[in-house]
Amino acid sequence: MARPLLFDDRECGMPPALPQGVRLWRARLDAAARWRLLDEIMAVLRQAPLFAPRMPGSGRPFSVRMSNAGPLGWVSDAAGGYRYQPIHPETGRPWPAMPQMLRRLWAELADYPAPPQAALINYYAPGARMGLHVDNDEEALDAPVLSISLGAVARFRLGGLKRRDRTISFLLHPGDVLLLAGPSRLRYHGIDRIFPDRGEPLPAPLEEGRINITLRRVTPPQPLPARD
Length: 228
Ligand code: MD3
Ligand code: FE
Prior knowledge:
- The radius of gyration is 17 Å and the shape is globular.
- Strands 1, 2, 5, 6, 7, 8, 9, 10 and 11 form a 9-stranded antiparallel β-sheet that branches. The protein has a two-stranded antiparallel sheet with strand order 3-4.
- It has a single domain, classed as Jelly Rolls, CATH 2.60.120.
- By secondary structure, it is of the alpha+beta class.
- It has 2 helices and 11 strands; from the N terminus they run βαβββαβββββββ.
- N-(carboxycarbonyl)-S-(naphthalen-2-ylmethyl)-L-cysteine binds next to β5, β7, β9, β10 and β11.
């Protein structure tokens, strides 16, 4: 298995170590594993097409388009705000099943006693970005988030628990896997930009751009029913 790197040699501004709770496995997925996963993701997107989530209130669309796999999916629109729901906001159908590769990666790396419920698929076309934000729409905030990068290279920004805290940035390459756990789960973070000419192309019809998949536990694990 790839050794988690504590240093980044490809981007300046990186402190000697990642904060507590953050782990990065560079190229955790080799080329064959990336193709297999992309194949599964393209199959998910045929059943559950990318949609443009909208900001609560203003209704302004995100530049990142999204879809989901698994029992729950993250969605957002002007009226309903950020939430998880079991159906696609446009087709009304249940989200496709979570690819087994993703369940396995979570089991190997997440150190959490229950499987992920949502695989949020983010697609960044050239020019798309994601502003600094915190992921806190999940009830199970003790669970980590596991992120997998595919396609184009991106510059990821990681801050602190307050928006104004100092940030660090580093590049995410295809096949990199990032775990956000424990005290780092509620850090601000975002994607400054992608580099469409670096990394590798996505399957047709996407070709250009970047895909990130985040695996999330939304609700606390079901306790075993007491016997007696
Ligand atoms: C750090 N996605 O979907 S994934 C998101 O690359 C999101 O698409 C980015 O932020 C992307 O919400 C970054 C890495 C990530 C995910 C969750 C985190 C980093 C995180 C939660 C806490 C701290
Ligand atoms: Fe996030």
